Amino acid sequence: MVSLFHRLVTQGRLINHDIAMYKQAWSQPKAIESSINWDKANLPRSDDVSEADFWPQQESRINDVPALLIWGADDRVFSGDFLTVIPQYAADVRIHISPNTGQSPLIEKSDLFNQAVRNVISDK
Questions:
Q1: How open is the CA angle 107-111-117, to the nearest 5 degrees?
Q2: Residue 69: band (very low, low, confident or very high) from pLDDT cuts 50, 70, 90
Q3: Spans of all domains in the chain
Q4: Which candidate in 13, 21, 91, 118 could, as Cys together with 8 as Cys, close a disulfide (CB 3.0–4.6 Å)?
Q5: From CA 29, how far away is CA 111, in angstroms rounded?
């Protein structure tokens, strides 16, 4: 992760102080393991989802709140299957797919991320 962040420093997307803060957070006992376990426990593969995985229930929907999902097209952590499922649970969701971007569009493509947010705000 640190080598990825050094690349982002070179690109001007992060500063060395940001890396120091991440290192400090990750140095806490079991910090990285806990993060990975959270993802594993809360994000099953789409083929493995059962009724018991839904909380509070599968029929839950967000109807009154607009939402924006900014998705990194090259995300290797989350399955792109979520892009077809999420609109079933949010009545007003916009999905912006950021090309050549991994799991962290805010850091990797901050200009595109910020523009997507501005577009939603200016439309309301």
A1: 95
A2: very high
A3: 1-43, 61-124
A4: 13
A5: 34
